[in-house]
Design a protein that fits this description.
The protein has about 200 residues and is α/β, with parallel strands linked by helices. About 45% of the residues lie in helices and about 10% in strands. It has one domain: Rossmann fold, CATH 3.40.50.10140.
Amino acid sequence: MKVFINCPFDREYQTLLRYMIFTLLYLDQEPSIALGDSDCATKRIDKIERLISESDFSIHDLSRIKAKKKSEYARLNMPFELGIDYGISFSKNKSKKYLILENEKYSYQKGLSDYSGFYIYAHHNDPDKLVKILRDWFVNNRIVNRSTPGANKIYLDYFDCWGFIFDSLIQKGYSEKETDDIPINEYIDITKEWKKSISASHVLL
C-alpha cells in the first residue's frame, strides 16, 4: 500500500523522517514523498496532488506549523497539503485513512481549529514514540496483522539497518559526512535491501 507523507523537510526533522520511512518499509508499506521526485520540469504542487491521488493512506505531521521566534512566519505547507488531501478524498468519495501527527498534544488546535474533534497523535519529537504510534496505528486499523513485531523491536532494528546503510554508502565512496545527506530514494532502496537480507537470513535459519 502507498502511504503519502506530508512533513517538514528541515534538518531538525531528518531523524524523525528516517524512522518514519524505516517503520513504513518494515510494515511492508510503500512511502510516497515529494522529496523522491526531483524532476525540475514538474511543479511541486502537481507532484503533491499526484502523490496524494495515488496513495492509499496519508500521514500528515503538523508539528512545525508554529513560528519559533518573533517575526518568523508560520509554516503553512503541512496544513495546506492536508487540506488538498482531504479535498481530493472527499471529491472522490474515497474512504481514505489518515494519521495526523503533532509535537505536543492539542497544539494544532491553536492554528487549525477546524480540525478539532479528530484524534491527533503527539510524538514529542521522540523517534521511539513515533515508531510506536505508526506501528500501533497500522495494527489498530487492521492494515497489518497482530503478529507484527512490537514497536521496541522495530525501533532497535532501525540501528541495525542504519549500520547496514552506513557500510553500504562507505563502500560506494561516500565520506562519513556525506552519509548524513543520503538522497531519500537511495535511503529507501538500501533499507529495502537490508529488509531482504534479514528475511533471507531467517529463511536460512
